[in-house]
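Two proteins follow. First one:
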Amino acid sequence: MINTHILTQEFEYLEPKTVEETVKYLTQYGDKAKIIAGGTDLLVQMKMGKLRPGYLVHISRIPALRFLIEERGLRIGSLTPFREIERSQGIEKKFTALFEAARSVSSVQIKIAGTVGGNLCNASPAADSAPPLIAFGAKAKLVGIEGERRVPLEDFFVGPGVTVLSPREILVEVEVPEFSGWLGSSFLKMARVSADMAKVNVAVAMIRDGNVCKDCRIVLGSVAKAPLRVKKAEAILKEEVYKGTTAEKASLQAVQEIQPITDIRSTAWYRKEVAQVMIRDAIDLAWKRAERGA
């Protein structure tokens, strides 16, 4: 029987005050070190014996990593908790899918402790923040011993628990570009219970010009080894007049692109069935919201 209440392994605790100091520790200890902030994912894995880091680098006391700037797009510090995103009226109005994703995250306690950076770096295929941020064209700003680089969030994920981050890099910020035109977005999630991880989640972001969809991104979670853009489905919508059957056609194409598995939360068959309905509804909702720029 696994004891999930205590930490049995020994580790050294480090508490840097700056990003530079954090990078120094990561460079010194490499893959023996793990970054911890809210700890909502890492501590659970340590308690279950899945991870046994020799060093915990606690970054929560680095104020430069916690910010939410809503000017010319959106900038989110990696330590920003979901609770702050959920409480932002600006995000609710302009980046509605991200607001809805933050609202869907587990309990209030997890929203307060859990950070956007942690949710992304944990690289769960079911991460709630990933689909809307990818749909909005976000980039991850990474800092390491060799300097900084920006990676499209779409390319940030490699597979379950794996990202392009090297052991000597830290995610410091997520950058969402400013949109021109009428933007509408939506996020839908299906889970066993409200506090559970997603069986399927989907985010849609659309730019509308009258009755024409000028641009569109559709991103799903928990249906592949990493958050997935369904680009063939997007192509059905882009530069086309939106009709009553458009969302249905795009959703039918989308389920041909996903690769769900059967696990403890759901079956692959069920994920495909429910994904088709969710994608259709999310497209319709984003389209209607784009009419008023929401």
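Second one, unrelated to the first:
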Amino acid sequence: MRLNRFLAAAGLGSRRSCEALITSGAVAINGHFITQLATQVAEGDDVRVHGRQVHTATPVTLLLNKPRGFVVTRSDERGRRTVYELLPPEYSTLSHVGRLDKESEGLLLMTNDGNLAQQLTHPSHTIEKEYEVLLDKAFAHEHVAKLTRGFHIEGGRGQFERLCVLAPKKILVTLRQGIKRQIRLMLYHMGYEVERLTRTRIGGLTDHRLPVGACRRLNDKEVAQLSLKPTALPKRQIKAK
């Protein structure tokens, strides 16, 4: 197994972050510091990071229903509450996959599976994420075309993959991007304020019964669902012509 994959499987982050550990000289195999990314790890090798021995961990992935008011970080210099306060102690070393801003809520993944984290966050994989969005005023159907074509916002060119109107002031947005505060920024550009934003789907995985603030461990079938594409669009789908 390549060294970066071994470190990711040990729960030390994505392959990219593990590559940074290697090139910085923090990793040693059998007493020798390694900086070559192509290095292979054999069974029985003694692998250490910053002097601490590491082993491949049993993959664990949690689904957390994040409440509003919590930040997605392990610790916060401003003393705000973090999502790690919601986890049982045995899961405190898991890494979050992507982010939701403080005022957003809904589904968030926590895992020690670096390969899974890389798959779900790398731009080349474009995993779908779906959000219910409550607006401050009724949504105008003529804005669908511009939002689904996309336009430049802070952080890059933002684009909604799909948009469905659920009620006059409630829409369902599907994204394949991960620009910071993308939904809020794009809708603000169109003259709307977001009053509530909830992530309801990641890939093919949803869970409408998971209480706010609660988490649960995913089984292998559910982990596989994360990379699935939905088989059909919502009936009330609105698409740009």
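SUMMARY FIELD: The chain has six helices and 15 strands. The chain has two domains: 3-53, 61-238.
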